[in-house]
Amino acid sequence: MSTKMFAAVVSALSALALVAAETHTVNFYNNCGYGTPILRSQSGEVLSQGEDYTSDGALDGAIA
After folding, report:
1. Rounded-to-integer distance, Cα 10 and Cα 3, Å
2. What phi and psi values does residue 6 have, to the nearest 5 degrees?
3. Which one of 18, 21, 31, 53 is least enclosed by Cβ atoms within 10 Å?
4. In b/e form, how buried is each residue of 4-29, taking b as 16+ CB within 10 angstroms?
């Protein structure tokens, strides 16, 4: 395989890997009718106050 062909294949595979990147979405459904659901990160940062939250990578240790 030539160097140019190898580079083209690696480039195409890299592009496909980016398209299939990991995402996670947290949806809140407040069925009790009062209060506000809050999503926090491990460090305590508020990520969401009831609206959907989407992470473009791993979502480790989130607290609802």
Report:
1. 10
2. -60, -45
3. 31
4. eeeeeeeeeeeeeeeeeeeeeebeee
Q: Give the tens place of pLDDT for each residue, 21-41.
A: 788 899 988 888 889 999 999
Share of the chain above pLDDT 70, in %: 73
State the pLDDT confidence band at 60, using cuts at 50, 70 and 90. Answer: confident
Q: Determine which helix (DSSP H) or strand (DSSP E) holds 55, and give its type and residue range.
A: strand 53-55
The DSSP result for 10-31, as a single string, is HHHHHHHHHHT---EEE----T
Rounded to 5 degrees, φ, ψ at 40 are -120, 150
